[in-house]
Amino acid sequence: MSDNVELDLKNVEKKTSPITWVIMIVLPFVLFFVSLFLGRYMINPSDVAKILIDQIPGVNITPTWETTAETVVLRVRFPRAVMAALVGAGLSMSGAAFQGMFQNPLVSPYVLGVSAGASCGAAFGLLMSWPTWMVQIVAFAFGILAVAITYSMAHLYKTTPILMLVLSGMVVSAFFQAMVSLIKFAADDEDKLPAITFWLMGSIGKVGLDDLAPSAIPMILAMVVLYAIRWRLNVLSMGEREAETLGVNTERVKLVVIITTTLISSLTVSLCGIIGWVGQVIPHFCRMIVGPNHKALIPATIFVGASYIIVIDNLCRLVSITEIPIGILTSVVGAPVFAYLLRKTKGGWA
Amino acid sequence: MIIEAEKLNFSYTKNGRQILRDVSLTLQEGEIMSILGPNGAGKSTLLNLLAVLNQPNSGTIKLCGKDTKKMKPREVASIISYVPQNHTPAFSYTVFDFVLMGRAPKIGMFEKPSSTDFEIVQQVLEDIGIADLADKAYTEISGGERQQATIARALAQEPKAILFDEPTAHLDYGNQLKTLRVIRSLSEKGYAVIITTHNPDHAIMLGGTTGVLDRNGHFETGLSNEIITEEMLNNVYGRTNLKLTYMEDVDRYICVPPNL
User: What ipTM does the predicted assembly reach?
Assistant: First the structure.
C-alpha cells in the first residue's frame, strides 16, 4: 500500500511542474536586480552587482563606479524595489486569504474598508499640512480604525458572520469615502486638493531607505503568519459552518486573517496610496497556475505578486517623463487582465 | 454511550418559536438513528446542536461522557463528523485535497497535513472506492460521487459518530440506495450514525431506532419497527392517509401514499 500512496501523493502534489515553481521563485529576484540598474540614470549592471556585494560586511571592492550611482542604487532604487516587492506580495497574499475566507474570488483586500479609512486619514493629514511621516501614521491608524469598526459592526451573538462582514465593510467604506470627498471639498484647490488627489493615486517612490525597516518588518511578520495558516484557509473556504464541524475555531482564524491582512494593506495604503486590482488579479492568475489549494496558492501569490508590482512600478517611472501614479497603472493593467482571466476560466474559479 | 443528550430546549431567538422541547436521546456504538419529521420541524437544528454548532437554551449534551460545554471545537470534531447536504464550494479543490480537510481536527492552526494524514486519506478513498477520483476536481464530479467524497472526508476525521443531514436528498434512486448501504455498513463497523430523512422507508430499511420530531418540538424515539406506525406517519405528515403495508417480496413494511 505504501508504494501506492507515494504514487498518488506525487499525483496530487505534481499539478505544477518544478520548473514552473523555479521560474516563479527566481523571477522576482531577477526583476528586482533589473530595476536597480534601469532608469533615466542608467547604471552598468556589473556596477550594480559590485555595489551590492560591496555592502556585505567584510567585503571591499575598489569602486569602478561614480558615487552618484551608489546613492541612486542604495538610497533610491533599492528601497523602492524592496517596497514594490513587499506591496505586491502582501496585497496578493491578502487578496488570496480574503477570497478563501469569503469564499468569493472577487473579493479584494480592501473589502473591509481599510483603503477608504486610510485614504480618509491621509486626506485629513494632508489637509492639515502635517509632515509626511505624520500623514502616514494617521493614514495607517485610520485604516486600522475602519476595519475595527467594520468588525465590531459585524459582531453578532459572539460571532461575526461573513455576510455581515461584507455588508459592514461596504457601509464603513462608503462613510470614509464620503469623508474623503468632504475633505477634498474643503481643501484649497490650488495646493492641497492636488496633493490629496495625487497621494490617493499612489506612488511607491515616496519610500526611502529610512522608512523601509519600520514598515517592512511588521509587513513581513504579518505575511509569515498568513503563510503559516495557509492550510487552514482551505478548510475555512468550505464555509464557516462546515469548517466548524471540522473542528476549526473559525472566529479565531477569521480574526487572525483580518488582523494580518489589515496590517499589510493599511501599511501599504499609508505608504503608497491605493494600489488597486492587485489583490484580485494575482490570486486568480496564480489559481490558474497552481490550483486552488492554499498550501500552494499562498506561496505562489508571494512570488508572482512581488514580480508584478516590481514590473508595474518600473513602468511607472520609465514610461513617461513624469512618473505615472501606480494606482492608475495597476487598474489600467489589472481590469483588462482580470476580464481576460474571467473569460478564459468562463467564470469558473479554477 | 457516544452521544447523550438530555432535555434540550432550543429556539433561535428569545421569543421565537420553540423548536425543541425537552428533547433527549442517546446513541451507542454501532447504533443507527433515523430522524423523521415534517419540513421545518427542526431536524437539522437538532443535528446542529449535537454537532455543537449551536448551543441549546437549556439541557446538556455529553459526547463520550464529556460535557460539550467544556469541549473545544477540535475535541468535538474528533468524536463527531457531520456530513452536510450536497453543496458546491467556491473553489475546485481536488477530491484528495477535499477529503484531506477531514484531518483538520488533528492538525494545528499553523501546521499543514503530514504524510500520516496523506496515508489515512488514501486509505479512506480506497475503502469508499473512490481512489480513482483523487485528482478530479470536487466541483466537476457527479452528485453521487460528491456524496461519497463527503462521507470519505467524514471518515478521515476518525470519528465515533457520523451525523448525516438528509443524505439522500438530491440523489437519484440508485445513489439513494447506495448511500443507505454505506450508512448501514458504517454502523456495522461500529460508528454511531444519525440521519435525518423525509422518507419513512429509509428509516424502516435501516432498522435501528427512529426519532420523530413534531412541529411542537416534541421528540419521541423507539425501535424503528415499533415506532413507525400508520398513526404516527399520518400525525407527522398531516393526515395524508398514508398506508403502511407488509410486502412479502422484500420482507418488510413499506410506506405507501394514497391516490391523489
Answer: 0.91
